[in-house]
Amino acid sequence: MAGVANIEFKGVCVEYGKYVRALTDVSFTVEKGEFVFFVGRTGSGKSTILKLLSREVQPTRGTVLLDGLDVSNMPESDVPSLRRRMGIVPQDFGLLPRKKAWENIGYAMRAVGKRRIEVRKAIEPILENVNLAHRADAFPTEMSGGEQQRLAIARALINSPQLILADEPTGNLDADHSIEIITLLQELNQQGATVLVATHDLMVLEKFSQHRVITMEKGQISHA
Amino acid sequence: MLDRLEFLVSEAFTALRRNTWMSFAAITTSCMALFLLGGMAFAYRGIAGYAETLPSKLEVRVFLVDKRTDFETKQAMEQIGKLKGVRRVALVTKAEAWAKLQREMPDITKGISNPLPDAFNVSLSDVDEANKVATSIRKMPIVEKDGVKYEGETQALLSQTLTLLRWVGSALGGLMLLTSAVLIYNAIRMTIVARRREIRIMSLVGATRSTIVIPLLIEGIIQGAIGGLIASFLIMAGHQLLIRLMANFAGFIRVGALPLILVFGSLVALGALYGLICSMFAVRDPRGIA
Ligand SMILES: Nc1ncnc2c1ncn2[C@@H]1O[C@H](COP(=O)(O)OP(=O)(O)O)[C@@H](O)[C@H]1O
Ligand SMILES: [Mg+2]
Fold first, then answer.
1. At residue B285, does pLDDT exceed 80?
2. Residue B6 is inside which H or E element, if any?
3. Which end is more exposed in chain B, N or C (fewer Cβ atoms within 10 Å of the end residue's Cβ)?
4. Is B206 on the interface with A (CB under 8 A)?
5. Chain A contacts of B199, Cβ < 8 Å?
6. In this predicted model, which residue has the larger pLDDT, B143 or B54?
7. pLDDT over 70 at A151, yes or no
8. Which value does ipTM take for this structure?
9. Ligand 1: which of A21, A47, A91 to mutate, most ligand atoms within 8 Å of CB?
10. Which atom of ligand 1 is nearest to the CA of A168?
11. Considering CB atoms only, which of A54, A94, A113 is closest to B201?
12. Is the Cβ atom of A48 under 6 angstroms away from ligand 1?
């Protein structure tokens, strides 16, 4: 599928309130099946780029296209189906502490309308996919940071997404676990998904230097 | 479909359980509001129904002493008939009156010997003369002490009672209704805060707005409906209490039967509707939820 424009940012500006400018005139394209790192200091606008795609944020100016679809201007009622096409791995994992690992996945599946039988069948392979099958009955608090991150990734896979957005997936992990997580995302990329990763982890960049890197500085792309 | 409903309902119940105290407050106040409004409505209905069974305003009932001659009776009837404002006088014997009462209230009259005296039914042509007529009749020797029952007084009392009931009931009920609105609204807002993680996850994985909102609406509906249910039981208990009191103090005033299905049906339905409306306000702002 390489060569097909999947994501396109055209002159995107984002302002939070009157004074905070998160992005200034950002333009780039990402092709289907690419693996891209967004790199930069804290506050440089990496998360905002990912949130524009998932419509958690709307641009003040410019357009964000996903498969030719104008994400920034679609009606609110189309947002759920937009999000079902992507897997979002939030920076803070967003796990439910009172639910076991498998219940965290099951809950998300139920929320998007999957039936109980479907959930029961799907959970095992999804957990298998992120190497967590043996931890199905653990609560998030009983899991290591790496395991929690993998669980968050597993939950992002419930809609079999063609696009995965991971925000600082190695933020709280040691080197070994960081490599393990990026390797996992790489595998998902090899299975066909476009993967966008926001990170400020230079060790990771060195280790996975074969991938495209877009560098951010003060809300602008400084190097692509 | 059922599978879907199960998820939404279980979400609502989870929220209710997590939010125990707020739910408790919301249920209690909506119960009080519905109890006041419902209790007033059914008391009103009962009293209004009773008022209709009373003799018209144009009637004066005159109870007679037992010791009297037929001549005295006839003479008195003639005298009364000549009073200004009187249209007609009729003698109602104690047997006739008792028979009528037995027909109307078989359960109360059963096993009792006739306690009623003979009486005149005096129809008036002019309500304004009622007081004068009553005063004149009261002086007659064959009339029992305090034996002139001017039903207009009862009527007036009843209509005053009804007005009072309407005002007090609406004012208190309305106040409680407002309070419970605030509390149900708050309970739902609290749930939104308490469940923001879940709501965020749902929203991130692409759950529709209705999936996120319906459990919150169900929660409001349940709070209102439970309030209505408890209010129905309270009204039922209140009604029983009234029957006891009336039986002890006012032997013959009958407390009407309570239309139970109507009470429960209408209060639960009203409560549910009310809870729905309050929670709809609480979830109106989509940004607050997503
Ligand atoms: N919700 C928000 N409200 C106000 N300012 C925000 C908000 N989110 C991000 N910002 C600001 O926007 C800028 C870019 O933030 P972000 O995209 O999170 O950067 P990064 O992910 O690279 O750390 C920062 O200056 C940040 O403080
Ligand atoms: Mg960030």
1. no
2. helix B2-18
3. N
4. yes
5. none
6. B143
7. yes
8. 0.90
9. A47
10. 21
11. A94
12. yes
pLDDT in tens, B116-131: 888 888 888 776 777 7
Q: Which CATH class is domain A1-85+162-224?
A: alpha beta
Specify burial of residue A211 (Cβ count, 10 A radius: 0-12, 13-18, 19+): middle
Q: Tell me: do B261 and B165 sit in the same domain.
A: yes
On whether any CB of chain B is under 8 Å from the CB of A108, the answer is: yes
Contact present, A167 and A47 (Cβ < 8 Å): yes
What separation in Å is there between the alpha carbon of A45 and the centre of ligand 2? Answer: 7
Span B19-65, pLDDT tens digits: 888 888 889 988 988 888 888 888 878 777 776 666 566 778 888 88
Same domain, B165 and B280: yes
- Separation of alpha carbons A159 and B203, rounded Å: 13
Question: Does residue A75 sit at the B interface (CB-CB below 8 Å)?
Answer: no
Q: Is A44 in the pocket of ligand 1 (CB under 6 A)?
A: yes
Which residues 6+ apart lie within 8 Å of A192 measured at CB?
A1, A33, A162
The alpha-carbon gap from A88 to the nearest alpha carbon of chain B, in Å, equals 7
Sheet holding B143-150, edge to edge: B86-92, B119-124, B59-64, B143-150
A48 CA to centre of ligand 2 in angstroms: 7
User: How far is residue B29 from each of residues B23, B96, B107, B172, measured CA to CA in Å?
Assistant: 10, 51, 38, 12
Report the pLDDT value the prediction gives residue B251, as an integer from 0 to 100: 53
Among A110, A120, A153, pick the best mutation site for testing chain B contact (most B Cβ within 10 A). Answer: A110
Q: Which residues pair with A195 in a beta bridge?
A: A35, A164
Domains of chain A, residue spans: 1-85+162-224, 93-160
User: HSE on the CB side for B204, CA within 13 Å?
Assistant: 29
- Determine the structural domain holding residue B36 and report its residue range: 2-52+156-288
Question: Which one of B6, B197, B204 has the shortest CB-CB distance to A83?
Answer: B204
Confidence of residue B253 (pLDDT cuts 50, 70, 90): low
pLDDT for residue A111 is more than 80: yes
Q: How many domains does chain B have?
A: 2
